Amino acid sequence: MQKNFSLKLGLRSVFTGALLLVSSSSMAASTWSLSGCTQGATNANNFGNSYSCSAGGNTVSAFAFGSNGTSYAAARMADWGSGSGLGVESVVDGLGTASPEHAMDNNPSGSPDLIVLKFTTAVALDYVKLGWTSSDADITVMAYTGALTGSTDQAKATNLIGGKTASNLTTGGAGAGWAMVSNYGDADPSGATGDAASGTDVKYVNSSNVVSSWWLISAYNSGFGGGTLDSLADYVKLLSVASKDIVPPPPGVKVPEPASLALTSLALLGAFGARRRQLRKQA
């Protein structure tokens, strides 16, 4: 009885360990609807404000930046409703500017409006959903992998972006560490006309499965590098983002693929079976 009990415990341990390994290598995908998020108390309705919302136990905070005439400065982010999404009013635009300049845009082109997203837990973005668009709807997506300075997320975001231009966010200084994920154009391959219709535009943005806590979504600008799209002006509002159903293992830990895990489990079961036959012979 004791031997059989020990064998059952061993078998149970094999299956339990296999399940733990599978669950540790994956996590349910989440979607953050950015329209309807909570605006922070700091600089509410002014330049340097922020929004935050949660999904799947992971909170995302959004910070906006735009041109001050020569480089990036904190901008005002405005929620234009569930059918539109978040827009950006830069210092150049001014507070309360009319459409389409209160969208996230690349006019002026030197420092295109952008939104920085900070997640409490690192994610692999899957897609970006745009709400209202005008003229064109090209965007740039980057992830941050460098060192951070600042006592709060808002301060860190400011240190990462403030005083930079599109061309030096990825080339050194305090902005070093922004890695280009890709540029994403609209559905018009010719570039002769933009995506002039309002609505929702879903862009799948992370084919290489980059994982980070800090993401940058910007109206497209060739100064970021990573390719050239058309020269049309892009006006977009950010409606939501979603993550993929993957999470990397801890540093230095290699999680087995499902097939390898299955083979390992079968090998362990074979070992237990052989041990059981040996115990029977000894009985």
UniProtKB/TrEMBL annotation:
Transmembrane segments: none annotated. Pfam families: PEP-CTERM. Residues 1-28 form the signal peptide. The keyword Signal applies. Keywords: Signal. Residues 255-277 form the Ice-binding protein C-terminal domain. NCBIfam families: PEP_CTERM, Xrt_dep_XDP1. This is Exosortase-dependent surface protein XDP1. It comes from Roseateles paludis. The gene is xdp1.
